[in-house]
Each structure stands twice: as structure tokens, then as C-alpha cells.
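Progress narrative, work stream C.
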Amino acid sequence: MSVASPQPIALETRDLCKHFSGLEVLKGVSTAIRAGEVRAVIGPNGAGKTTFINVLTGIHPASSGRVFLGDADVTGLPAYRIARKGLSRTFQISNLFADLTVLENAMVAVHAGRCFRQSRETVDESLSLVGLSALADRLVSEISHGDQKLLEVAIATACGPDVLLLDEPTAGMSPSETNRFIDLLNERLRSRYTIVIVEHDMNVVMNTADVISVLTLGRILAEGKPDEIRTNPGVQEAYLGSAYA
């Protein structure tokens, strides 16, 4: 019986380090995420998760080490060039315009991201993907927090990325909104994109991730499938506690 070949690597870091005024935040982070994978990055506050995302996406340059998007070395490129090469993200803090409609927010974001080849039709498809077509003409100030978070996902997909990075996508959501997001990721997003999700809600992580990376004190403590991470004594001690044993 033939064995399926592994998927190519979509996103990779090699010995990634980041310093801020002498403070070492990332300390040699090396990991490889394969195409089509859903990778969760978890860890306690101050572990370096946000810095890791910001270095991946070009918001902060790496102090040392390399970042590869597919075969392309994107280390040191500005954020807009990395986005144009196929890495798109959402933000933990909303960047939406409350006095514009859902559709207008998506169109503004696409043009600001220099995705000029993307059409109104593409934006409509992104809104449909996350279930917001019916709200396209509503002001953002009039829709729920959960729908605002989904709009940010729609905006991130509108430029046609290969890799989608979601930073705390369920923060502030109600339980029903969170379950809706889990269904969206599993039923629609994972078949289209390689996904990196930074998330504190372990229900979301355990029900979506193929592989989990545990970041503590700027280093990867452990990587593995959800069941492996759940039962890892070092991870339990550093982050999860006994509730997930």
C-alpha cells in the first residue's frame, strides 16, 4: 500500500529571535507548518505569541533567524509585501470603521492592502464565505461583536492568501458565537487555507487544530497533536493545568 507524501511546507521559521531594547522576547523559535494544516499557537500571557505573529507578518523585523513563506525567504520584508506574497492576518484589536458598512469596510481594507486586482465580486465571495452577505449594507456599529470578528476574517481572505493567520479570533465572543466560529473554520476555512490560530480558548484549540505549538518564555516548549499536548506533563505544568489532562 502506498503512503501519501507529506504536504509541502507553507510557513517556516528557523531560529527566530526578537529583541526589544535588550529584552529577548523570541529565543530561537523554529517550526514548520505544512500546507493545509491548522496550527494553533498557545501559551501564557507574555510567552511571545503576539511578537511571533508580528515578526511573521513583517510588522516587526526579526533580530535574527529566518522566515519562509513556501520557498520564498520573506525575512525583513515589509508587511504589505509579505501580504502580497500570500500571508494574511486578523488582529486581536479591531481595526474596523464603525461608521462604514460591512461591505465598505471590506472594500477599503482590500484597497489599503494593495490587492487592487481583487474585485467587488471577490469581496462578496469573502463575505459569503463567513456568512455575512445579508449584513453587507449594515453599518459595522449595528452588527454584533461576533459578526465584527467574522468580518475581520472575511477581510483577511479577500486578497486570496495561501496562509491565514488568526490572532485571538474568538476574543469577546459569546459561547454560541464561538461555536459558530469553530464550525466556520472546520467546514469552510480549513479546506481553503493553511491556518495559524493564536487562541486562549482551549475549546477552540482542541476542536480545530491539527498540530499545537506551545510557546513559553519565547521558546517552543512542545509541539504535537491535541491529544499529545493535552497529556504532556510539561505543558500541563506551564500552561494547561490538570483540567485538560
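Work stream C, second folded protein:
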Amino acid sequence: MVMNSLGSRIVRGELPPGAPLEPETLMIEFEVSRTVIREALKTLAAKGLVDARPKLGTHATDRSRWQLLDVDVMRWRVEGVVDRRLVLELDQVRTVIEPSAAAMAAEAHSPEQLATIREAHAKMAAAFESGDESSHVDNDVAFHLAILAASGNELLERFEVILEPALRARHALATKHAASREYLDLHLAVYEAIREGDAEAARKRAAELMQSSAHDLELILNAAHVGS
């Protein structure tokens, strides 16, 4: 609780760079022991969010120090107010990574992994027909994570730290826009290329999906007047 609360406040700017984090004050605020506070600050220091120095105390750090790929830091950044820069940068990273992952999946997937991709798409389609936005988001995430898993590359599979927050942040902006028939068809084309074992087609179809996603996202952000 302490670590999550402080981490979220630092990332949201409620505790700006240089803000002091006094253990005694935090013990009173959270009604916990010094040991709990010390462990929370130690964890935040490992994530780059706080800096503790002898005689100088513990302070919140600048964004340049944060471990941006840490799962908690990423989660805190996508919670609450939408960060335009973050959402766009996440989409840019997806554009670089996902076409290659799809190409690798076309060559390396197992029957079970292919079935997982197919099932995720089928559930996305069912959610679209029923208007179940929550299920659509969950299965969109599952579709893309399944492709990473099917790539046969363990490092790519760990890309989920970026991919899932990126997709959920995008959907949080405009689920209705994302859950379109065209969106489903683009996903289906990626699946079919992977199923056929055609690496170049999978790369191309995934690139088309990413291009469409990036274009739609820019329109969504502009329409919503989301700031940086």
C-alpha cells in the first residue's frame, strides 16, 4: 500500500523532483512502522523514483532517473490522467516490435499457440457483437501477448510489460473507436498470415495494423485534446 501510493504520487507529479520523503511523517500518514516505510522507500529507490543519501535524506527523483520499463512504473504512468507522450511513445515502440514478432511467430508457432491466438480473436469478435467493452480489451491484450509468446523469443515475450499498458491506455481513451469491424479484420489478417506460416505476410499485416492503430490514436488524442 505504501509503495503503491508513493510511487503513484511521484509519477503523477504530486511529489515533484526533490520533494522530501521523511520516514517519520510517512509513518504517521500511513500508520505503519518504520520498517514498512524503509522497505517501501528501498523498493522505490530500486525503481529509480527516490534517492536516499546520508545526511541529505530521501527525495523524489526526476523522471530521467525512473526505470521506465519497470512494471509498476509503467502501471502508475497509465493510471489516471492520460499522458499523451507516453501513449504515443508506447504505440511507436509497438510499431517497431510487433511486425517482427508476428513474422517470427509465423515460423515458430506451435499448434497450441496458434489456437490461443485464434481463440483470442474469436472472443474479440464475440465481444464486439455483444458490446462487451471489458471483454474486448482483455482479449485484444490476449491476442497480442499470444503472438509474442508464439515468436519463440523469451525477450520478446517480456515485451508484455510495455504492450499490455499500451493497449489498455489506448482503449481507455476510446474503446468504441478501437472496437470496430475494420479493427477486427486487421487482427484476423495477422492471424491468417501466421497460420499460413508466411513470415513476410505476417510482418506486413502486423505493420498495417500498427499503422492503422497509430493513425486512429492520433485522431483520438486530438479529438480528446489530450495534453503532453
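The longest helix spans residues 199-224. No further action is required on this item.
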